[in-house]
Amino acid sequence: MKRALAALALIGLSSCSLGESVPAAEKAVVKFHTMLDRGQFQQIYDQSGGIMKSTASGPQLVALLSAVHRKLGATKQAVRQGWNEQYNGDGHTLTLGYDTLYERGKAAETFVFQVSEQHVSLAGYHINSDALVLN
User: Fold this and answer.
1) Domain ranges of the chain
2) The model's pTM
3) Which residues, other chains included, contact 76 with Cβ-Cβ below 8 Å and sequence gap of 6+?
4) Is there a contact between 83 and 97 (Cβ–Cβ < 8 Å)?
5) Whole-angstrom Cα distance, residue 2 to residue 122?
6) Which CATH number does 20-134 carry?
7) Is 80 exceeded by the pLDDT of residue 69?
8) Which of 14, 47, 52, 92 is deepest in the core (most CB within 10 A)?
9) C-alpha 123: how far from its chain's center?
10) Is-contact 98 81, C-beta < 8 A?
11) What is the distance between the alpha carbons of residues 4 and 128, in angstroms, rounded to a whole number?
12) Distance between CA 97 and CA 101 in Å, rounded?
C-alpha cells in the first residue's frame, strides 16, 4: 500500500515539472522593471492578477511604485537569488527573489506570480531597501 501511494505521488509530481514556469516569470520581472522605469505604474496594476487586485487597490500600488521609482531611480541590474513554487487547492504560485541595483540604492525584491498554463500574472510585490527610508 505504501509503495502504491509513493508511486502515485511520483506520478503526480512528474505531471507538472517543477520550475517550468521560472523562465516566464523571469521575463515578467524584466517587463515589470521596464514598465517601472517608464512610469507605467497603472499598467502594472492593470496587468496584475486577481490576487494582487484583491490585496491592493490601483491607487495603493501606483503610490508604492511611484515612490520606489522616485526614490531609487532607474533599474540598473536585477539578479535572481532564488525561487519557490507552490501548488495548493487555490492554484499554483511561483515566488522569485531578486537583488536589484537601482540608480540610488540596492533593494531586495520578491515577486509572487499566479501561474496558469505557462502564463504568469503578478500576484504580489515586496521590496526592502534602506534607500526607500533614508532618501
Assistant:
1) 20-134
2) 0.84
3) 101, 102, 103
4) yes
5) 39
6) 3.10.450.590
7) yes
8) 52
9) 7
10) yes
11) 46
12) 13
pLDDT value at residue 17: 66
- Count Cα neighbours of 125 within 13 Å in the Cβ-side half-sphere: 23
Q: Which among 120, 124, 130 has a CA at the least distance from the CA of 53? A: 124
Largest CA distance in the chain: 61
117 Ramachandran zone, left/alpha/beta (phi>0; psi -120 to 50): left
Chain mean pLDDT for the chain: 88
pLDDT tens digits along 5-56: 343 343 344 345 667 899 999 999 999 999 999 999 999 999 999 999 999 9
Is residue 109 within 8 Å of residue 126, measured between CB atoms?
yes
Q: Write the single-letter amino acid at 25.
A: A
Three-state SS sequence of the chain? CHHHHHHHHHHHHHHCCCCCCHHHHHHHHHHHHHHHHCCCHHHHHHHCCHHHHHHCCHHHHHHHHHHHHHHHCCEEEEEEEEEEEEEECCEEEEEEEEEEEECCEEEEEEEEEEEECCEEEEEEEEEECHHHHHC
